[in-house]
Write a structure and sequence with these properties.
Elements (H helix, E strand, L loop, with lengths): L5 H15 L1 H6 L14 H19 L8 H22 L2 H4 L6 H13 L4 H25 L7 H21 L9 H25 L11 H11 L6 H20 L1
Length: about 260
């Protein structure tokens, strides 16, 4: 049996990506995912990392001879994206960054009303569904985060984000919809706000042991730049290019 072609793999790959990342899928306009939040359990992160490694191997094995010009570009983009994911998986972002458990829920609700791809009544139903799932995602964060990996600077940022998110779901969000849609949305928003404030308190309790290193590292950054972004230079060269630009702009300002 011949190996599957690029065009055979893509539909399966995209279907899996859509299902595993419903918030991102929703932001892409796939409204059938509007009710769902990403699974942020430790098992889900490990499952997605293993799947990404397998997909990367399968796509990388497809030769130029077996693709059209356009397919080769898409293949390289997919391999680059999966390479970047592998770098962050190796860095154990889900055990290191507390905002991992804030972004899908808060962005997932905010994005519904930013894009407004459906009538407000249906958006409110989706927002309520996501708000009701938010406490579970925060509980996953409490279970997954390892204080020895969490940098204090990221802890501080997440605490402020959780507090601001509580104000958004409790006060700002209900005011953003018509009065006839506010009641149940306000109730779900208040429950989510309570969970967000509890998460902020939990993060504060991690402070004495939060001594992780926030530094991403030159080797990882090089991999992202060269293999994921497909640039012809690494972190040091990028830094020098930035310095050159600053010097040129400063000279223009002086002139």
């Amino acid at each position: 049996m011949p190996d599957p072609s690029f065009s055979d793999l893509v539909p399966e790959f995209l279907a899996e990506q859509y299902a595993e990342h419903p918030v991102r899928s929703s932001e892409m306009g796939l409204t059938e995912f509007d009710d769902d939040l990403d699974d942020l359990s430790g098992a889900a992160f490990e499952r997605r990392a293993a799947a990404a490694a397998s997909w990367r191997e399968r796509f990388a094995a497809i030769s130029d001879a077996d693709t059209t010009f356009d397919e080769a570009i898409d293949r390289d983009l997919i391999v680059g994206a999966l390479t970047e994911q592998a770098v962050y998986d190796e860095w154990r972002v889900w055990e290191r960054q507390p905002d991992t458990y804030l972004n899908p829920g808060l962005d997932g609700v905010f994005g519904l009303f930013l894009h407004r791809l459906r009538p407000e009544e249906r958006l409110v139903r989706s927002a309520i569904s996501r708000l009701r799932q938010l406490p579970d995602t925060l509980e996953a964060g409490k279970a997954n985060l390892r204080p020895e990996l969490v940098p204090e600077i990221l802890l501080d940022r997440a605490i402020r984000q959780a507090q601001a998110g509580a104000n958004y779901t409790r006060n700002l969000l209900p005011a953003d919809v018509a009065e006839e849609h506010r009641g149940e949305l306000a109730d779900a928003g208040a429950a989510a706000a309570d969970a967000l404030e509890a998460y902020a308190d939990f993060l504060e309790s991690l402070r004495p042991a939060a001594n992780g290193d926030w530094t991403f590292g030159e080797e990882r950054y090089d991999t992202v730049l060269r293999q994921a972004e497909m640039l012809g230079y690494g972190a040091r060269e990028l830094r020098e290019k930035g310095r050159q630009q600053i010097e040129e702009l400063s000279g223009l300002l002086r002139d």
